[in-house]
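Input/output pair, single chain:
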Amino acid sequence: MKLAVKKVIGKNTYNFQVEGKNLYEVLIQSRKLSFYDVDKCGLCKSDNIVLDAHIAKDKFKYATIKCLGCKGSVNFGQQQEDPDTFYITTKEGSKELNWKPFEPKN
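Output:
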């Protein structure tokens, strides 16, 4: 059994497909995409944002939402109990996304 999951990030639509042996398994797999739609950058308010991924220090894998305008980004967290489950990081004690401004490396 398969289930299509649509996520909208800025002006981009991402279509994911999850699979399982039955309805229960498909729904559990869909929860691993536990992040919600994000319509604009939390810093410059641009809707020119995209899903991105990168590796830092040759070992840390990150999924992010990146602004193509100001280059700010917000990271996804990864559950320790289930490393296949990702969620968007928020500011401590808040539901506000934890956007970080771009800091060029010297």
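The longest strand covers residues 2-9. The CA atoms of residues 33 and 78 lie 11 Å apart.
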